[in-house]
Structure prediction request, 585 residues.
Amino acid sequence: MLEPLQYEFFRNGLAAATMTGALCGLMGVYIVLRRMAYVGHGLSHAVFGGAAVSYVMSFNFYVGASLWGLMSAVLIQLTARRRTIGTDAAIGIITTASFALGIAIISRYRTFTRSFDAALFGSVLGVTPGDLAAISAVAAASALAVFLGYKYLLFTTFDPEVAPAYGVPAAWVDTLFSLALAATVVISMQIIGVTMLAAAIVIPPVIARQLTDSFGRMMVISTVTGAACGFAGVYISYYADISSGAAVVLLSAALFAAVMGAAAVQKRLSASSARTRVG
Amino acid sequence: MLHPSPHPRGAPPIIEVRHLTAGYGGPAAVTDISLNVYPEDFTAVLGPSGAGKTTLLRALIGGASIYSGDILYRGQPLRQARPLAGYVPQLETIDWTFPATVTEAVLMGRTRSSRLFPWFSKEDRKHAFDVMDRLGIADLANRHIRALSGGQQQRVFLARALVSNPEVLLLDEPTAGVDVKTRDDILHLLDELNHQGVAVLMTTHEINAVAAHLPWVVCVNRTLIAEGPPKQVFTTGTLLRTYGAEMPVTEYAGITMVAESPHFFGRRNDGRDVDAGHTIHGHQAGRVNEAQHGHRHSATDAPGGA
Prediction:
């Protein structure tokens, strides 16, 4: 267990995975409750395009990809307003086009392919100390924003139409949330990879929802679960020699299956005990 | 009857709506509505579905686009001064699967006045508990919001509105989908709150069950049709313009009653068709409408109808 910790790349990867896992779990609560799972999925593909463009233009990767992600999120909001199109179609169009742009660029400039493998599928190898610093900073800033905006986010998630009556500036809250989401996607890309990022955002909160009816508890359970799956996923990827993104997602999915199974068993047990009590 | 006479309206209005035309980006849902809400009002906004009642209410809280006209709160335009209004939405718009306990739902009403931390202060919690106690739902504090009856659910969202100490309560169809006893309880509760100094503006489509019992009724069907005490407002002409149907009006024990659907349907026991479209005749008092003979749906109607 302690053997891989001697390698700096592993320590960095472990720290990055735990932080991004926790952040995805935190943001995921809002994503799932706002029925935005498809947005999370699409946004991660859109960001890939931004990453590719930033690389080609020698722009700072994090800044470029974040801006691109934010732009995509805003574009989705604007297009979704037209009733003839609808949100899911808008996401499908904008994000796949963006992803396609990314693929077009890397297929043209073939020398960049290896690092983009990591961007697509996640790799525990590529986390430099510089990356780690950026990930820590963004994770801390996003967590702080969610912390301070907790009540506003709660209200706009639960009852968005009534929010203005209670003094909650819904439009601002949504914009800041989109920004935090774009940032989350960008920093999580390296460990989990763009193609599977949606799972890291969706699975921990769904697990949490099975375990509690309270919003506060759901937030805590989801964050801890995300962190744990990130942590354990990196270990699994090291020992099993598989991509870290796949390891994190498979572990999360297995945990989800276990929780659902336990819930089903519990239902059977309480139903049969009720029958024996009555009968 | 809840109030035998309309309130004195000498005080300045809390909310003034002037020639409001509003919608949600598409065609206008309400056109040229003018209305005032005074401090002691207990008013029903009455109209059929699609009449724009919800839009009117939403416009008051800044939830609809104002195409033309003004909404003033104590003389100031809505942008500068949001009304201290507690908004209670229609129960069917609530997401009942959301992970919230009764306490968490009620506490959300304190969002505006509390600090930027994830937890609510002791004071917030105490105040929320007091409101819940007053509405009789304190023992449901830790229950999930879907594990409640319709009347209890209505009280939870009423508590959420009251927790912010509003001057005006705006309720969207608060008696929709509840049984008679619950409806009665809710109206009495609102009456009590009104006596304690909160103005109440509620939308409804129920004429006899709700609107007839309130001191002031505003009839709306995309625009303002009439406004005043039920005695004055419930005339066949007004109701025709509001609901698009002719309804006889009568009076019983001081309450104005409207025969909302004065038709018989089906067959009588002897196998003969009931006179379709036979309206209710012969009530004494007030504004009895001359019978209308419509809707004879069967060619084999027995003779000797109205």
Remarks:
- The longest strand of chain B covers residues 15-23.
- The radius of gyration of chain B is 22 Å.
